[in-house]
């Protein structure tokens, strides 16, 4: 078991509406597309999970926006935790089990090295 927890987000209608206008094509992501799994620190209860999420939501929000439009000037400028909750369904899970028999590698660190 890893000393991490997991959060996944699915876009709600406000994100889908923004995405449709942000790229000019009128297309938006499919709500059921494959989602990114974000590893977050371990937590013991739901209150702690939401406190941790409030600390990292900006990074998740930006990752989701970037995945649809890399032009940061097209992103909503006044992003806060309330907006994050309005734009995404949030799924938290406190247990991460690693079933692989090899070392966990951060590809971003490999690219920097």
Shape, principal axes of CA atoms: globular
Please outline the major beta sheet.
3 strands, antiparallel
The low-confidence parts are: none
Fraction in helix: 40-55%
| Oligomer kind | single chain
* Average predicted confidence as pLDDT: 88
How many strand elements? 3
- State the domain count: 1
Head-to-tail CA distance between termini? 27 Å
Secondary-structure element sequence?
EHEHHEH
- Structural class of the secondary structure composition? alpha+beta
Percent range for β-strand residues:
15-25%
Instruction: Write down the Rg.
Output: 16 Å
Number of helices: 4
Major sheet: order of its strands?
A: 2-1-3
Can you describe this structure?
With 113 residues, the chain is an alpha+beta fold. It has one domain. The protein has helices at residues 13-22, 46-68, 81-87, 107-112; strands at 4-11, 37-41, 88-93. A 3-stranded antiparallel beta sheet has the order 2-1-3. The radius of gyration is 16 Å and the shape is globular. The mean pLDDT is 88.
Main attributes of the structure:
single chain; 113 residues; alpha+beta; three-stranded antiparallel sheet; 4 helices; 17% strand; globular
Task: Offer a concise description of the structure.
The chain is α+β, with helices and mostly antiparallel strands and 113 residues long.
Give the helices and strands, then pairings:
Blueprint (H helix, E strand, L loop, with lengths): L3 E8 L1 H10 L14 E5 L4 H23 L12 H7 E6 L13 H6 L1
Antiparallel strand pairs: 1-2, 1-3
């Amino acid at each position: 078991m890893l000393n991490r927890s997991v959060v996944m987000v699915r876009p709600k209608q406000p994100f889908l509406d923004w995405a449709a206008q942000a790229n000019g094509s009128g297309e938006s992501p499919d709500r059921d597309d494959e989602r990114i799994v974000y590893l977050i620190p371990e937590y013991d209860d739901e209150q702690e999970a939401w406190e941790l999420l409030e600390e990292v939501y900006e990074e998740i929000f930006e990752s989701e926006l970037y995945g649809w439009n890399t032009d940061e000037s097209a992103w909503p400028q006044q992003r806060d935790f309330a907006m994050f909750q309005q734009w995404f369904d949030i799924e938290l899970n406190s247990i991460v089990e690693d079933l692989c028999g090899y070392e966990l590698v951060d590809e971003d660190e490999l690219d920097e090295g």
